[in-house]
Every structure is written in C-alpha cells, then in structure tokens.
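Q: Entry one of two.
A:
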Amino acid sequence: MDIVLSILCLFLIGIWVSTITNSRKIGKNERFIGYIQRYDIDGEGYQQEVWEVTDEEDS
C-alpha cells in the first residue's frame, strides 16, 4: 500500500511540475526582453516581465 501511495504522489508531483513549466508558452510573435523594477502605490518594489510583441499579418 505504501508503494502505491508513493507512486501516486510522484505522479501527481510530475503533473504539477509540468503544468508550472508549460504555463507560459512563448508565441511566435513574442520575445522576452527582461525584467524591470516597478513600485506600487505603497512604495513596495516588485519585478515586472517585459515582452516585445510584434503584429504579423497572415499573407
């Protein structure tokens, strides 16, 4: 019974990791530039992702 629960836990952890890594797929017209430092209204700092998106027309 312990082996079955261990295998089930490993399987669920694997699914969880794959959903995290595949949550943000880069499209053909997107390019990751980097991070910028931003500040909210309270003065707390946080990092924001910067993406470049180009409009491509279908020919």
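Q: Entry two of two.
A:
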Amino acid sequence: MTCRIREATADDAALLARWASAMALETEHKRLDPATVLAGVAAGIADPARARYFVAMDEALAAGRETLALPVGTLMLTREWSDWRNGEWWWIQSVYVEPAHRRRGVFAALYRHVAAQAQATDGVVGLRLYAERDNAAAQATYRTLGMVDAGYRILEHAVDRPAAAPQGDA
C-alpha cells in the first residue's frame, strides 16, 4: 500500500472523532459520548499546542487524483515536557487504522512520518505511546518499529466534574 501522510484539518474532525470512538470501543470496550469526542478532536486540530493529528491517505486508489485518495488511518501527537532530559517526549495517541487496511503498513507509515519529524525537531527526546496490556498484536507492531517497553505503568485519577447547566435565558 502506498500511503501519503498529511496533517489533519478541521474538515477531518468528524471522521477522526468516529475513529476515536471506534478505537475506544474496540480496545477498551468503552462507549464515548460522540459530541464530547467531536469537540475534543476539533479543539485539538484547532490548537497545535494541544495536539497534532496526522491522517494516512491510501494513494493506491488515487492514480494521481487527490479526490480519490482515501483516508485509512490516523494518530494524534501530544507533548510532555521532561525536566530530566530538558526536552519533550512526543506521545502517540488515538491510533486508528480502518479494519480493511490493517496489517498493510498504515501505522508504520504514520509512525515513520512522526519519527522523522521528531528527529528533525530540536528539543524532542523521543516518542512514547501506551498500549492496552492485552493487545499483543499492537505491542508486536510497536516493537517491530523499534519501540521498547519503558518499564512504566500508567495510573490515573479522573477529576469528576458536574454536568454543565443547560444554557438558556436566565
């Protein structure tokens, strides 16, 4: 498969939100609120300081015509400052490849694209991602690309927020 990687635009937000929801259901058995995910993706696309999204386009179908190139996968990058290294880790998140295009090099193309950008960007110390503990196929793919187990466990504490009050004439 021939993939071209491009930065996502606001026009991609609905597709990327659908993919994020599909990934959450597939990997974590979580149903996400579509409006929240769409708002989150749109906010990330609008502000590169929050996130950068990349889209893999299947060029095999395009035959030189952009309108026929098909989006087949995505990933999102976020940044984490490391005082230990005086630089940034780029975190790969929200990875999704359309099921019909899996095991065809789509994620590898996305990964190599961001790895090349990280290599070319001063202050970036490396790439990281987290994988579901039982997702052996994904972990094997990441190892094939040169990633190693960093030896950390991810812990979290969610902050509960009250539901937003309805907007209206008060």
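A: Comment on entry two: The longest helix spans residues 13-28. The mean pLDDT is 91.
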